[in-house]
Write a structure and sequence with these properties.
The structure holds two protein chains of two kinds.
Chain A (H helix, E strand, L loop, with lengths): L2 E4 L9 E7 L6 E2 L4 E6 L4 E5 L4 E6 L6 E3 L3 E6 L53 E2 H22 L16 H10 L17 H6 L22 H16 L2 E9 L1 H13 L8 H15 L5 E3 L4 E3 L5 E3 L1 E3 L2 E3 L2 E2 L7 H16 L13 E5 L18 E15 L2 E15 L5 H16 L7
Parallel strand pairs in A: 5-9, 13-17, 17-18
Antiparallel strand pairs in A: 1-8, 2-4, 2-7, 3-6, 4-5, 6-8, 10-19, 11-12, 13-16, 14-15, 18-19
Helix pairs in contact in A: 6-7, 6-8
Chain B lengths: L2 E7 L5 H10 L4 E4 L9 H6 L1 H18 L15 H25 L3 E3 L2 E4 L4 E5 L4 E9 L3 E3 L12 E2 L1 H4 L8 E5 L3 H12 L3 E5 L11 H14 L2 E3 L3 E7 L4 E6 L5 E6 L1 E4 L3 E3 L6 H4 L22 E3 L10 H15 L14 E3 L4 E6 L2 H6 L4 E7 L4 H6 L5 E7 L5 E8 L6 H9 L4 H5 L9 H12 L6
Parallel strand pairs in B: 1-2, 1-6, 2-3, 6-17, 8-15, 9-10, 9-15, 10-11
Antiparallel strand pairs in B: 4-5, 5-6, 7-16, 12-13, 13-14, 18-19, 19-22, 20-21, 21-22
Helix pairs in contact in B: 1-9, 3-4, 3-6
The chains are: A alpha+beta, B alpha/beta.
Chain lengths: ~450, ~475
């Protein structure tokens, strides 16, 4: 029996993926569970494994092709079985709709000041790094059948455009949409078969969007990578929907500097602790103390997360990604150090597994390595807070009416006011400060 | 007492098409039609579109023979018996009516040859039998009839409407045609070719006043060449209908009194609805001041279960509009989701020579609606096919909105332009822009190349100019 190999959905905001290479060619025998192709999403490269054994009978999309989520990219069949390419791929993806997604940014500096940029990861169901085609296919087929039945019942009146489906529109509607800068895919069509016609474009009220940039002088156009598109989309959405506010505290890191020097004398290799690791640990402990911060806005309610998964923004040449240190509260500082180094290294090689950049509940972004004193970061939805960590500098501070030299570091928390109020943010950040200023608390 | 899902009163192009669609969608359907009124196919078939096209063909054949010298063919002793043209048209009408009857039987539609009248909710009283039938949905498709002014009595001897005209078996030496709409123009063309001196009397400022002004100007030239006399901007005060002819008293545009005399007069001044004796008042169906039945976008009247389609609704007295209304009405009844009818995209055709065909807004109307109008016009004269068939008069004109190239209207005058209405309608209905028409390859050598060139003229530079 022929089995379709589908473009998997590796995150709720993934709409298409690129086929990097086929590891099997048409006619090759494949066994169940064997990797057959490698795909690239806007975050990672991933291997797709065969759900069924047999022969790779057809490759429908070759290397370098962008394919919509859920579309059939190949067919595995029994040896000798005749297969035909499906007219239209069933929309799969949603079945796996894992709510999380890694994102964007930062990296922890080895030894010295940690660095970071912005933003973190999502939360939710876990995806497997290697995706079995069947886990997508079966529920989605059922879903498809239901959708079709519903569509038939509704007639053409309320067309449902499925993900990846061709946008049917009249030439005039296309021109009008282009002229008005509308994305036709967002316009509901009321013409025959859901075709978008003039009246649909005329009647469409677009969601408020910033005006497109119009170049006025000589420019160099840089094509958008998937990662850049994801950053643009996610962060615009975050800044526009989540009401951000910011609270900054100066933290005396003098004790932390001494503590770190001391423990790193005995720790070796990957276990050596960075300041960012300490911040992550402090944030994890503070989240435990203030579970209201470890939460997400869910339109009609607030969801508090049981797990404490701290994302760390890692800068990459083409953008950033936010690998997640899961259960950071339960991990020791040296475990966090090991995890952080491993994740940052693999992030730079595009080798993160989806579950490693999804499911975060709060993010740490660090620009200390760039000698940034303080900054503000954009919350990585669906999280509600992100901590922007600056550099550690020796400063003259007044303690007990004496001017003394201390190593100071500033952290600014960006909070989603729908979930976190000012006093809570201040208390939470105060707890982070208390932990970092008394670093032994991080190990008890 | 018979019970139906749908009963259609009237078997014209609205009613019979609606009935077939209803039957196709599994609705138990009957059509009530008193053949003494019109018969199967309605006015369109009995004394409208179909017989007139047959007679017009006779006129064009005769015209070609009379002008055969242009092809180097000498024809002597041409005899054209007009009564034979009428006979020919009657045969065609019969064939077409039989076709409708066949479609009824094929689709198991009951044809009830009586008069129908609303008799309460879901009830129709049949006359003269007095029987009653019931239907969940009653569709009034009773059409319209010529509207006659100045107390004239169409008698088929001196005063004619289209109905009497199509049974007229001889051509008089001269005839007055009242009204320069499609019907007046077509019959004027027939008469003039059969040797009758036609004088067209029109109140508006031009021939075919509903068409684009440039089309009117072009047809005026052609009719002048044909020998038709016409007077526009006339104010007619009185028409005397005598035993042996008519006298029309009028004042012209300059205010000068004019009289026109002829042995016969064709009145072609629009239609009035057949909305009497239908029981509308009894069940409370609303009509407007002229008696047309008021309907919503799905042809529903204000009374639940009662619908009206076609000429009786007063939208466009055109067969294809009636059919379109009928189909939309039935599909809505059957729970489908038909597209609403866009009355701005209804094609219309006039079958004199050169033919006139149009759809959408005229240039004037488009400007009045505030469009930033671009016009693309291309004549038939340079077209190879037009040259070959010796019919080089006319042009095609695109009226386009400058912003997105939206086609607002297409106006055509020239050889076989009525057959190009399909393309025009398709383009407008699918919302093709003038550019899309331009990039569509049109076969050479065809008259339709002019269509493409006109579209190109609207968006850029035509090739063959």
């Amino acid at each position: 029996m022929a089995t379709n190999v589908l473009m998997p959905k590796m995150g709720y905001d993934m709409t298409e993926g690129k086929i990097l290479r086929w590891m099997k060619q048409e006619g090759d025998a494949v066994s169940k569970g064997e990797p057959i192709a490698e795909i690239q999403t806007d975050k990672v490269n991933i291997e797709i494994e065969a759900f069924a054994g047999g022969v790779l009978a057809k490759i429908l999309h070759g290397a370098d092709e962008d394919v919509a989520v859920g579309e059939v990219i190949g067919i595995i069949a029994d040896p000798g079985e005749k297969v035909e390419a499906p007219a239209k791929a069933p929309s799969a993806g949603q079945a796996l709709a894992n709510k999380g997604s890694g994102l964007d940014m930062a990296q922890s500096g080895e030894g010295g000041e940690a660095v970071g940029l912005d933003v973190g990861a999502g939360n939710g169901a876990k995806a497997n790094a290697t995706v079995s085609t069947s886990t997508i296919e079966e529920p989605s087929m059922v879903k498809q059948a239901n959708a079709d039945a519903q569509r038939a019942a509704e007639g053409a009146q309320a067309p449902v455009r499925r993900e990846g489906e061709r946008v049917k529109a009249s030439p005039l509607a296309r021109k009008m949409a282009a002229g008005q800068g509308l994305d036709l895919a967002e316009v509901p069509g009321t013409g025959p078969g859901g075709r978008i016609v003039k009246r649909d474009v005329e009647g469409y009220k677009p969601v408020q969007k910033p005006a497109a940039f119009v170049p006025t002088a000589a420019v160099t156009e840089v094509p958008l990578t998937r990662m850049r598109q994801a950053i643009a989309r996610r962060l615009s959405e975050s800044k526009q929907t989540a009401p951000h506010f910011y609270v900054t505290k100066a933290i005396d890191m003098t004790e932390a500097v001494a503590f770190r020097a001391q423990v790193n004398q005995t720790l070796t290799g990957a276990q050596k602790v960075s300041f960012n690791d300490m911040v992550i640990k402090a944030v994890a402990k503070a989240l435990k103390a203030y579970p209201a911060v470890n939460a997400s806005w869910a339109d009609d309610r607030i969801v508090q997360h049981d797990r404490i998964n701290v994302g760390m923004a890692v800068a990459l040449p083409e953008g950033l990604v936010v690998p997640v240190i899961n259960d950071a509260y339960a991990k020791t500082l040296s475990q966090i150090a090991e995890d952080a180094k491993d994740l940052a290294a693999r992030a730079k090689e595009n080798r993160l597994r989806p579950d490693e950049f999804s499911g975060g509940t709060c993010t740490v972004s660090n620009l200390g390595m760039f000698d940034v004193e303080s900054f503000t970061a954009i919350i990585n939805p669906p999280e509600s807070a992100i901590l922007a960590v600056g550099s550690i500098n020796k400063e003259a501070v007044v303690i007990n009416d004496e001017v003394v030299v201390r190593s100071m570091m500033r952290i600014t928390i960006s909070s989603d006011h729908r979930v976190i109020d000012g006093a809570l943010a201040a208390q939470f950040l105060g707890e982070v400060k208390r932990l970092l200023e008394t670093p032994l608390l991080l190990v008890v | 007492m018979s019970q139906y899902d749908v009963v259609v009163i009237g078997a014209g192009p609205g009613g019979y098409v609606a009935a077939i669609r209803a039957a196709q969608l599994g609705l138990k359907t009957a059509v009530v039609e008193d053949s003494k009124i019109a018969g199967l196919g309605g006015v369109c078939n009995q004394w409208g579109c179909i017989p007139s096209k047959a007679i017009l063909k006779n006129a064009t054949v005769l015209h070609t023979i009379q002008h055969a010298e242009a092809f180097g063919i000498t024809v002597d002793g041409v005899k054209a018996d007009y009564s034979k043209a009428v006979d020919r048209s009657k045969k065609i009408v019969e064939t077409q009516a039989k076709g409708v009857g066949f479609l009824f039987r094929k689709n198991k539609i009951d044809l009830i040859e009586e008069r129908g009248r609303l008799a309460g909710k879901g009830k129709i009283k049949l006359e003269p039998s007095g029987k009653e039938i019931t239907a969940k949905h009653i569709i009034l498709a009773t059409g319209a009839r010529p509207r006659v002014f100045f107390d004239m009595k169409p008698d088929g001897k001196v005063v004619f409407t289209a109905k009497e005209f199509l049974s007229m078996r001889s051509v008089p030496s001269s005839m007055l045609v009242l009204g320069a709409g499609a019907i007046g123009m077509e019959f004027a063309y027939v008469l003039q070719n059969y040797g009758c001196q036609v004088t067209i009397l029109e109140m508006a400022d031009r021939l075919l006043p509903k068409e684009d002004a440039e089309v009117s100007a072009e047809i005026s030239k052609a009719f002048k060449k044909l020998g038709v006399k016409f007077h526009t901007k006339l104010k007619i005060s009185k028409i005397e209908q005598k035993a042996d002819g008519v006298v029309v008293h009028a004042t012209d545009a300059a205010g000068k009194p004019q009289t026109f005399e002829a042995p016969r007069l064709l009145s072609a001044t629009g239609v009035m609805p057949n909305s009497e004796n239908l029981g509308l008042q009894e069940v409370g169906v609303k009509t407007n001041a002229q008696g047309f039945i008021e309907v919503d976008e799905w042809m529903r009247t204000n009374v639940e279960g009662v619908y009206a389609i076609g000429d009786v609704t007063g939208k466009f007295p055109l067969a294809h509009v009636a059919s379109a209304q009928g189909i939309a009405c039935i599909e809505k009844i059957a729970g489908h989701h038909p597209q609403p009818i866009d009355y701005n995209k209804m094609p219309s055709a006039t079958y004199c020579e050169p033919q006139v065909a149009s759809i959408g807004l005229t240039e004037e109307a488009a400007k009045a609606k505030g469009h930033d109008v671009k016009v693309g016009k291309f004549p038939f004269r340079p077209n190879g096919k037009a040259q070959g068939i010796g019919e080089i008069d006319g042009f095609i004109k695109f009226v386009v909105d400058a912003k997105y190239g939206e086609i607002l209207g297409i106006h055509m005058i020239g050889p076989e332009v009525t057959e190009m209405l399909g393309e025009a309608s398709l383009a407008m209905n699918l919302e093709a822009t003038a550019e899309d028409v331009d990039i569509t390859v049109h076969a050479h050598p065809t008259l339709s190349e002019v269509f493409k060139e006109a579209a190109l003229a609207a968006v850029g530079q035509p090739i063959h100019m």
